Amino acid sequence: MSFLKGPDPLKLFLAKIEARSQLTDEERDGILSLPMTPRQVQPHRDIVRLGDTADHACLVADGIVARFAQVLSGARQIVSLHVAGDMVDLHSLLLPANPAPLVALTSTTIVQIPHAALHDIVARFPGVAAAFWRECVIDGNIVAHWLVNVGRRDARARLAHLICEMAVRSNQIEKFVGGRFPMPITQEQIADALGLTAVHVNRMMQSLRGEGLLESSGREITVRDWQGLVRVGEFDPVYLHLPNALAGLAQRNSATTALNS
Amino acid sequence: MSFLKGPDPLKLFLAKIEARSQLTDEERDGILSLPMTPRQVQPHRDIVRLGDTADHACLVADGIVARFAQVLSGARQIVSLHVAGDMVDLHSLLLPANPAPLVALTSTTIVQIPHAALHDIVARFPGVAAAFWRECVIDGNIVAHWLVNVGRRDARARLAHLICEMAVRSNQIEKFVGGRFPMPITQEQIADALGLTAVHVNRMMQSLRGEGLLESSGREITVRDWQGLVRVGEFDPVYLHLPNALAGLAQRNSATTALNS
DNA sequence: CGTAATATTGACACTTATCAACCCGCGTGG
DNA sequence: CCACGCGGGTTGATAAGTGTCAATATTACG
Fold it and tell me: For position B2, what pLDDT does the model report?
């Protein structure tokens, strides 16, 4: 797959899986040798449309992908965000009719993995089946956390929480370095993820900047006060099931307090 | 299980599964002969606490169960509601450490099914494994729909949407008769599910009543204008994957319009 | 029959949305 | 090389939706 820049997306995918499930050597090898065909997607372009029936799953190799829904007023709600190493589509194995469209928020490269290959590896390795099933469960838990965030926190806390989550997930894929991580999505897209307006996201962003919690330069966020962000967003990363990332971030700033509730 | 009033919860569970997955006769029998030990829970009592590690899953036999989270302010967000026939806990097979507490909203009877038995049936029948996995995916999709509802609809639409969902799910378990179905939860609990205040839920309820869409008598809701409720809530039931229930409701009121988007 | 839980109502405060304008950086094309 | 256009960020004034608080009515239940 030499034509893909950046790390092998299967390696990132595997690393995330192994943070959450134990695999045998054969299972590991099986995952790493899954067939894949790459595909470039321009920003704002759909990756999978509503109701499409897929015969492959989509693994993000680079860029940011969103799953969303649209209400009649035209407003969008982003229901999940995905970075490199995320198999956006794993549930399509069980529900081939796509329940919510996928869109590339940035210039994105994904690799498509045939359902046939996934079904095969799942049938051969019960450990992989369990791991994939577990991934689906965790994805559901993350959505549930977003629901809590949108339902019961004010705009500032919502934003802080989302930023914390994306920081931890970026860290998991080695994209969090020197307190900075890429967040190349527009404030309007952030608003769609938080159930807010772009204007209000802008103001809350200024508020977080004003308190010295972070700096933001359009496509990147620099965390200035991780503990402060965690406090504002009431962020407890256990729901991400990425223990390494947690440790990595906790030590990055001075405070030694544990982040757990 | 003669000491359980009402229908065998396993039968309800099986019926829902079969609405979504195809099973063989042996798989069906396997599910119906799962061992279970009943348990009565008083209203407002926890069924599973945060972080508990379970060795069994909980199937609702009667009553209403909620999964929720609590933010620091003390506010609660209900993340899913469950009625008879729902295996509230299926994901605990994959994540034994419970990520969100379960509480009985009404007087409830659940039956506990040992993980050992579930693991066993899953290992013996790949079709059951797929069906259970699919249930987890659908549960996740429902949460995603709630996120859309809370993030991008106003209070009236949110309430209408929730009522539509509970109507369809009640219908699936034969509890929707004569345009009425049980909804024995308080307005405060509804508010916690919708990210609203009890006071505001009260007002929106009055609004829906005032428009002749429904009548509510505390523990029961009588649907007066199903099509109207669907319109106000922008409700499209496909995400529930309960095709029978949809047909049953669509014909119940005069309008013959299809409900699909 | 009494008591607590729930539903209802009203007045008011506050968060967030809406609308409109403006700025800025960047790529494009003349 | 500069003008232009455009997407995205920023700002201000105002409106709308929902929250808060407190009191009262109603219902459920022992």
Answer: 47
Give distance CA B13 / C1' C24 (Å). 59
Assess A155–B contact: CB distance below 8 Å, yes or no: no
Q: Which nucleotides of C are covered by protein (CB under 7 A)?
A: 5-11, 15-20
Length of chain A (residues): 261
β-bridge partners, A57: A113
Answer whether B209's CB lies under 8 Å from B201's CB. no
Which nucleotides along chain D are within 7 A of a protein C-beta? 7-13, 17-22, 27-28
Minimum-distance residue to D16 (CA–C1'): B154
User: pLDDT tens digits for B204-261?
Assistant: 999 999 999 999 987 999 999 999 999 999 999 999 999 755 555 555 543 333 333 3
Structure tokens, A61: 């190799």
- How many angstroms separate the CA atoms of B32 and B87, rounded? 14
Beta bridge partners of A87: A59
Q: Residues of B with CB below 8 A from A130's CB?
A: 94
- For the CA of B168 and the C1' of C6, the distance in angstroms is 26
Nearest Cα neighbor of A100 from B143, B45, B184, B94 is B143
* Distance between B176 CA and the closest CA of chain A, angstroms: 26
SS3 at position B223: strand
Tell whether the model's pLDDT for residue A124 goes beyond 90: yes
B5 CA to chain A: closest CA distance, Å?
32
C-alpha to C-alpha distance for A223 and A178, rounded to whole angstroms: 9
Write the CA distances from B91 to A136, A160, B56, B109, B133, integer angstroms. Answer: 9, 28, 11, 20, 9
* Closest listed residue to residue B249, CA positions, set B144, B162, B178: B178
